[in-house]
C-alpha cells in the first residue's frame, strides 16, 4: 500500500545523444518520463512508498514504461492497461546560446483517452496519505480533467494532503482554458507549487520587476505572488522555483515558500547543467518529502532546492539521488570533491 | 522533374540495437521508412529520377524524414508540410525461433489526416511516366483512399503506368474493408505486386497446397493466383514474392511473374537475414526498374529477385544497393567473396 | 507475498560487445544475472509472484542489482543488505569454433559471506508454495551450504514444493565436495533438474553412448539417468536438458523428464544462438511454471523446452519472454515470420 | 538552378568521441566537411538554392560525401566524379588548457588533382547570382589555383557577386606562396572575409595591440585592417571575425565589417563551445545570406555573428540552424531557456 | 632482440559497425592492420619475440598504429618515423549474398615512400632467425621493392629462414608487374605461402578443375600447384590455403602443404564468419610458428589451419588467440561449448 | 632495462558513460588504472624507460591490464602472474554540485595477496635509477607493506632515488595504521609528494587556515607543512598539490615544492574538468620527470603542474600527453586555440 499517490502521464522520451540536434545521427536515447511519474520516482528514491497511477497500452512499449518505474520500486499496481499509444516527447539538449527544444507527440495517448471508471479511486487511495498531481494531467483532455477532479474529491474525503504543481504547458491549452479548468481544482489543493511563470500564465498573478526571458528575476516579488495565490485559493503553502537562465549550460536556481504570513528563500545555486528537464518535478518531490516528514518549512524548502539542484546534474527525467546526497548538499557541501 | 512518382507514408522507425528486445537498453536506432518511400529510395539508388509524395509536419521530425530521403537524391519537392505528427513503427528483430515484432503507432499522422486538395496532382505528375502506390496508403484513412483514387485518375489520364503493391496490413483494416476500397482502385492498375498472402487476404484468391506459417509454399500454385488476379482485374502483369521462413534468421526467397499466359519463376535464394523489413518493397522497386528499362519479363523478374535478396543483407528499410550490385548477383555471383 | 521463492547469488555480468574478445575495446555490457535470479525473473515474466532472496552490499552496485530485478517485478524485499561486494563474472561470447568463455570473480561476495541468521526463513516463506535453489548456492561457501539446508528444512516443514537444478560448477568445488554437500540436500528435493553432465559430475550417474564434447548425445540413455536419480533420491520428477553443441553459433536443444516410470522427450530445436547463458535456468523456470500451473508432465516439459529455446535468442542472463510467446512456439510456430 | 555557387574541397572528418584523444578508443565519428561545403550547407539550411562544386572519386566514399550534402538539399549536380581519394582531416577536440588538434591528410585528393576542363563553368553558373570561394581551394594545388581563377573570370563576366574567405592554412602553403596566388584573385572579389590572423599571414596587414595567442584582441585595431584591405584591393566590404580564446571550452566571439568609410561591430558572445570547427564558415554563410537578402550592413553582420555563435553549439562542420533560430538570437534571446 | 622480423605496411582500417554499408551511419571502427603486421601480432600472441618493421609518420596517427602493435608486445623499435600519412583501407562487411568490400587509400603512405637507407637491416636482423614478407610490400612502390630485396639479401647472408606470402593485390599492380618483381625475390624464399588464386595471378600456375568464384575447389589440384612452385623456385615448402566461399557468412576453410614430394591436407572447417580479413595472414603466422617450433609438417599445417579458422571468429585484422586455443581446436574440440 | 621502476596495483576501472550515474544504462567504460601504473604510463609517454611491477592473475583480465600498459611502452616484464583477481574500482563522474564517487572492490587482488619472494628486486632494479611508490601499496595488505620495505631497502642499497606519493586512502586503512606503516618507510624516501590532506591524515601535520571541503586553501600554510615533513623525515624535497574544488566541473589547481629552505609555488590553473582521477599521479610523474632530467626545482614544479593540469582534460586514469604539450602549457599557451 502506497503512502503517496501521483497521477498523470508517463511518456517515451526520445533524445539524440549529447548535444546533437534532432536526427543528427541515427541513435536516440529512449527513456521514460513525465511530471507526475518523475515525482513518484524521486519519492521512491527517498524511501517513501509511492504509487504512480496512469493508463498505458497493453503492448510492449507500455510494459517498458512500467518496467522503468518498477526498477525504482514505484508501485505500478494501479496502472490500467488499455488504449493504443504511449505519448512521446522529443528532446534536444541545447548548449550555450542554443536553447533546448521539446516537441510533443502525446495526442491520443492511452491516458489522454482514459475515461471515468477506468480508475477505482477508493481502492487506489486505500491507506494513502498524500495525493499529488500537476497542471499537465487536466490539460491532456476533457476526460483527464474530470478524472483529476474525481481523484481530488476522493482524496479530500479521506483527509489526504493534496499538492499540485501548476506546470502550465502552452502547447496543451491556452491560459483561458487552463484557468477555467484549474480554478475549481484549486479548492482541493493544500500545497501549490509553481515556477516563475505559471501563476501569471494561468491565474494572471505576476511578479513585479521580473523579466524571465531576459534573465532577470526579482526574487522578492515572488513573495507577493505566493501570498496572492494563498489568499485567493486558501492554500496552506505556496512554493515557487526561481530559475535565472544565463545560458543553456548555466542557470541559477533557487526557490521560495510562503505560508501566507512568512516568506522563506532557499540558497541560490550556480548550476552547470547536465539535464534540466524534470528540475521542477524534483523540487516538488523534495518539498513533498520534507513536508511529509514534518521538516520545518525552511528545512523542507532547502531540501527541495538541494534535491532539484542535484537533478540538474543527472541525465534523464528521473532524479536519481538519495536522501543522504540531498542532505549533504543542503548542509553545504557543494564542492564536488571526489568521494572515495 | 521526376520520372517515377510514389505516394504514401514515411514513418519513424525505432528499433533496439541488434537482437535486443524492446527497451532492453535505453538506445533506439531511429531511422525512417515506409513502403512507398522505400520504393522511391531504391529507384533513386538505381539512378532513376523518383519523387516521393506525402504530407509531413512542419517541425524538425518532419524535416528529418525529408533529409533522409534527400540524402539518396529522392525528389521531395512535392511533400506537403502540415499536420501534427510523423507516424512511428517500433521494430524488434527476431532471432532463431523468436519472430520479429512490429508495433505501429501511426494513427493521426500528417498523411493520414491529409485531405483532398493538399496535393496538386497535375503539377506533381508533370513529365512523369510511372505512378506507384501500395495497399497501405488507402488503408491509412478514408481521406487517403480518396487521395489515391484522385492520383490514379490523373495518372491514367496522362497514360502513365500504374503499379500497385497490395501490401495487406491487418492492423490497418479488415479483409472486408480492404476489398471494398482496393477493388475499384484495381481498375487503374497495370502491374500488380503481392506477397504469398495478399491476394488471399484481400481478394480471397488462394494458392493451393501452401501453408505460409508452416513454412511450406507450393510455388506452382501461385501461377494460378497470378492468372486469377490478371483475369479478374485486367492487369498487364501480376508478380508474387515467395518467402519460405525457416527461422527468423534464415529464409528462402524467390518470386514469380505472369502476363496471363506465361508464368516465370526467379532463382530461389537461401538468405541469412540482416534485416528483412522492406524486402517486398525492394522487389517492387526492382521490378519497376526492370520494366521501366524495358528488360524482358524474365530479366526484370530476376533483377527484382536479386535486388530484394540483397535488401535482406542491408540494415534499415531502405535498399542501399546499386544496379551493378544487383546485376552481379542476378548474373550468378552469390559467393560473397571479398571485393578488394 | 511471493508464491515462489528462489535463493542464491546475483552477479554483475561484464561482457564485451558482440563477438569481441575480452577488452578488445574499452566498453563492457554491464548487466546482472545468476542461476536463481534468472529463474525468478523468468517466473515473474510469466506472471507468477516470485521473490529472489540473497545478500547484497549496501552500496550503489548492490542497489543496481536490486533495480534490475525490480524492473521485472521480482519481489526483492527479502534481500539482505550487507557485506562488501557483488560477485562478478566476465563473459566472452564465442563464435563458430571459438567457444564462449566465463571467468568468475565471485569469491568474497556478500552472499558467499552470509551467515546463519541473516535470513528469517519463516517470514520469507510466509504464504509461499515453492522453493527453488541450484547447486551453485551451496557451492559458494560452507555458510551458504548451511543456509540452503536451513531453507530446505523450513520449506519442507511448510509442505512447499522444492526444486533443485544441480548446476555443477567445477570452478567452485570438486565432484567429491559437491557430492558430500548435495547428497543430504537431495532428501528435501521433489523435482530435480540437470543438464547432460551434472548427474555424472556430482553423483557419478552417466548416460551410455554419449560424448558431450564430441557433440554426440544418446537421448535414450538419459531415461536411465533420470530413473537412477529418482530411485536413489526419491524425487517426484527428474528432468534433464539435452544440448548438442554443433558450434558456438548452432546448437540442438531438447529435454526429457521422467516420473520414474514414464520418460517423455520434448521436441528438439535447431537454434541459432544469440546468447546461451541462462539457457538451463530458463528451462528450470519453464518447468516450475508448468508444474506449478498443473500442466501435464508432457505439456510442462514442452513449455520448458520452448521457453528455454527462446532464451537462446535473447541477450543477457534473463529470459525476457511471455507465456504467450512460449505457448506459440510450443504450439509449433517456429517459423520466425514477422509479427505485425 | 542554384543561386549561390561554392567551390572547394569536402573532406572526411574523423574525430574520436567526446574529448577523447586520437585513438584513445577504437571508434571515430566519421562525417564530412570543408570550408566551402560548410558555407553551402549553411545557405541551404537558410533556404537559399546553393550548389557545391568539387571533384570526388567514383567509389562509395565519394558517394557518401555527396549524400551528406544532398541531405541538406545542397545541389550536388555539378560535382565531377573522378580521381582516387577523398581528403581526410583528423580532429581531436580540446578541453580546458588542452587545445584541439587537426591533422590533415588531404594530399592527392580528387579535387587537388582536378584539372582545367573538369568543370564547365558557364553551365555551372547558369542562372547563379553569387560565387563564393576560400583561400583553401587555391592552396590545394597549382591546378586548383587555376580553376579558381577560371571560375572567378566567368563569374565576373556574368556580373555575379564574388565573396572570398581568406582562410589561411599554414600547412598548405607559406605566406609568400599565399600572397603570390591570392593577390591577383583579389581583383575579382567583392566581399572579403577574414579571421583575426588571415590578413596578416597573407598580406602582412596587422592589427595593432592584439596578441591572438595571448588571448588579447584590440577590436578597434581591426577597423584599420579592414580599411587597408578595402583600399588595397577595392573590395566593397571587408569583414573580420574576432575570437578571444579563453580556453578550449570558452571563447568570446564577435565580428566587424567595414565598407571603407564606416566600421560596424557586432555583439560579442560568451560561448561555451561544443564544436568550434566551421565557425568561420558559418559566419561567411551568414554574411552572404544577409547581404544576398539585402539586409543593412549592420543587420547582416549581426545575422552572421549570431549564426556563427550558434554554430559553436552544434557538433560537426555543418551549421544546422535555421533563419528563425539565428534571428531569435540576433534579436537578443540568448538565455537558452527550453523551448517547449 | 626479436626472433622473427616482418616488414611491410600497417594501415588504418575504417569499418562501419556490424553489417552497415559504408557511411550508413556516422561511426567507424578505427583499428589498424596489414598483412605483415597481422603476422607479427599473431606470432607475438603465440609468445614469440617478433618485430614489425615499417615507416610511419611522426604525428599522432602514426603513434597510434605503433601503440596498437605495442599492446600485443610486438617489438616496434625498428619502425622509422617520417613521411606524411598512414595508409587507409575502408572495409564493409558483407552478409549473405552481399560481398564484403575493401577500398584502398594507401598511395603516398610513409612506407610507400620509404627509401633505401631508411632501414639499417644488419641492426634490425641482429639475433633474428626468420624474416617474413608478403607480396604486398614490394607492390607498394618501386622503392619498397628495392627495400624488400635488400632485406632478403641481408637475411640470406645471415642464414635466416625467409617466408613469403604471395598475397597478390590487383589494385596495386598487374600480374605482369607482379611477376617481374616477385620472380627474382623468390630466389631468397624458403617457404612460400599462397591462397587459391595467387600462384595463377602472379606466376600463371593454375589448379585444374577449380572455379574460385563459382565456389568450387578441386583440392587435389593444388598439390600440383605447390609442386610446380617448388620445382620452379626451389622452395623448401609451399603451402596453399583453400577457401570455399558459400556466402559472405559461411565459408569452408582448409589448407595444404607440400615439400615437393609429399602433399598434406589439413582438416576442412565449416566457418560462420565474424571477420575474414586477415585469415590468410593468420595462416601464415600459424605455419611460421609451427615450423619455427619444429613441429612436423602435418602438425604445423594443422596448427596453421586451426589458427586461421579461429581468426574468422575474431573481429579485426589481428588474430587474438593463444597457442592453447589453437591446440585445443587442432586437437578436435570445435564444438564451441562454453568454457567456464 | 628500465630507468624508473614503479610498484603497486593496477585495477580495472568501470565507469558509466559521460555523467551517467552507476548503472543508469547497461554500458561501462572498462579501462585500467592505479596510482603507480598511472605514473609509469606518464613517464613512458614522456619518453623515459619505465617499468611497472605488480602481480596479476594469469587469466585474460590480467592479460588485458598488461596490454593496456604495453600499448604505452611501459616495461611489463617484471609483472608476476598469479593469484585470482584484478582489483576493481567503480567510478561515477560528478557534475556541478554532485560529487564524483569511487567504490573500491579491490580486496583479494593478486597484488594484495602477493608475498615476499614473488619479486626478485635485485633483478628488477638492475640498471634502474629511480624507485617510486605510493601510500596505497603498503595499505593493500600486511604483505605488500613488507614488499615495499624490501624494495626500498634494495633500492637504497643501489643508491637509487626513491620518491613516495603519500596518497592516503581512508577506505584502506586508518590514520593510525597508516602512520605505523608509513613512518618507517619514510626513512628511505628522498622526495615526498602529497595532496592538501595527506600530511594531516597520516602524520597529523596540518596547514593553517585551510578548509579543504569548504573550498578554501591557504597556500602559504603549505610551506610550513612541507618544511615540517622535511624536518621530520629528512626528505630532500617535499611537494604538495593544492586543489580548490569550486564544483565537480571546475577546480583551481596549483602546487608547491620545498627543499627545506626555499618554497616555490607553481602557477594556478583554472580547470574545466574532463576527468580528474589520476591528477595527483600525473603531478608526481611530472615532478619525477623534471627532477630526473635535472630541471631546476622551480622548472620541475611548473612542468609537473602543467602536466597535471593537462591530465584533467584527458579521459581515463592515464595522462596521455607528451613533453612538448606540457612544455607548451608551462610556457604559457593555455588559450586552447585549435592547432592545425
From TrEMBL, chains A, B, C, D, E, F:
It comes from the Bacteria. Gene3D superfamilies: 3.40.1190.20. Keywords: Kinase, Transferase. Transmembrane segments: none annotated. One of its GO terms (molecular function) is kinase activity. Residues 1-316 form the Carbohydrate kinase PfkB domain. This is Sugar kinase.
Amino acid at each position: 500500500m502506497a503512502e503517496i499517490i501521483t497521477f498523470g502521464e508517463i511518456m517515451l522520451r526520445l533524445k539524440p545523444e549529447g548535444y546533437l540536434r534532432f536526427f543528427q545521427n541515427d541513435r536516440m536515447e529512449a527513456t521514460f518520463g513525465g511530471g507526475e511519474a518523475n515525482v513518484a520516482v524521486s519519492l521512491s528514491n527517498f524511501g517513501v512508498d509511492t504509487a504512480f497511477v496512469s493508463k498505458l497500452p497493453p503492448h510492449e512499449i507500455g510494459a517498458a514504461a512500467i518496467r522503468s518505474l518498477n526498477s525504482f520500486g514505484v508501485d505500478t499496481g494501479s496502472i490500467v492497461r488499455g488504449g493504443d499509444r504511449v505519448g512521446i516527447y522529443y528532446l534536444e539538449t541545447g548548449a550555450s546560446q542554443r536553447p533546448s527544444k521539446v516537441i510533443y507527440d502525446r495526442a491520443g495517448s492511452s491516458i489522454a483517452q482514459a475515461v471515468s471508471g477506468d480508475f477505482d479511486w477508493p481502492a487506489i487511495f486505500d491507506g494513502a496519505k498524500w495525493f499529488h498531481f500537476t497542471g499537465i494531467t487536466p490539460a491532456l483532455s476533457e476526460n483527464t480533467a474530470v478524472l483529476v477532479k474525481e481523484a481530488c474529491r476522493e482524496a479530500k474525503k479521506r483527509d489526504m494532503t493534496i499538492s499540485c504543481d501548476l506546470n502550465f504547458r502552452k502547447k496543451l491549452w491556452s491560459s483561458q482554458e487552463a484557468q477555467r479548468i484549474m480554478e475549481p481544482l484549486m479548492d482541493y489543493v493544500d500545497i501549490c507549487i509553481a515556477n516563475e511563470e505559471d501563476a501569471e500564465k494561468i491565474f494572471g498573478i505576476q511578479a513585479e520587476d521580473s523579466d524571465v526571458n531576459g534573465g532577470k528575476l526579482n526574487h522578492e516579488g515572488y513573495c507577493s505572488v505566493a501570498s496572492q495565490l494563498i489568499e485567493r485559493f486558501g492554500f496552506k503553502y505556496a512554493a515557487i522555483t526561481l530559475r535565472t537562465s544565463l545560458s543553456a549550460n548555466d542557470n541559477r536556481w533557487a526557490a521560495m515558500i510562503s505560508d501566507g504570513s512568512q516568506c522563506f528563500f532557499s540558497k541560490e545555486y550556480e548550476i552547470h547543467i547536465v539535464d534540466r528537464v524534470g528540475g521542477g518535478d524534483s523540487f516538488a518531490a523534495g518539498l513533498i518529502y520534507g513536508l511529509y516528514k514534518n521538516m520545518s518549512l525552511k528545512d523542507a524548502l532547502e531540501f527541495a532546492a538541494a534535491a532539484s539542484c542535484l537533478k540538474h546534474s543527472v541525465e534523464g527525467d528521473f532524479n536519481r539521488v538519495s536522501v543522504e546526497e540531498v542532505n549533504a548538499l543542503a548542509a553545504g557541501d557543494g564542492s564536488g570533491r571526489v568521494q572515495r
